[in-house]
Amino acid sequence: MLAWARLVSVVAVTMSALPGIPVARASIKPFVSFSFTTTRIDAGTGATLTYSGVHLPRPALLKLQEQQGRAHVWRNVRTLEGGTGTVQFNEGVVGRYQFRVAAIRKHELVAASRVQTLYAYHIRHH
Fold this sequence. Notes:
By secondary structure, this protein is mainly β.
């Protein structure tokens, strides 16, 4: 019985190396990430973030989302162009905000980044 198992594994390895024979590949998971240049900003001046999405199915779109309300619902704030980039947006009100970048395809969440907190303060300039 052991000899039969060895023979099957040798045949399987040999066949997977033959040209023209398809080899099953592990599926690669979509991945999204982003970071703020700084997580503490002067309210009204804006925040800069860099984002990246890899292995995303087409036609997935990257969206900057803000968490809102007691139900912690994610609301789309902005559509991000391309798979990677840097964007500036204005968060004009003093407060603490939770953001993530989500890859969305046909109204379905494909992948989401880790949540990051942005603090907007009223900073006095002398």
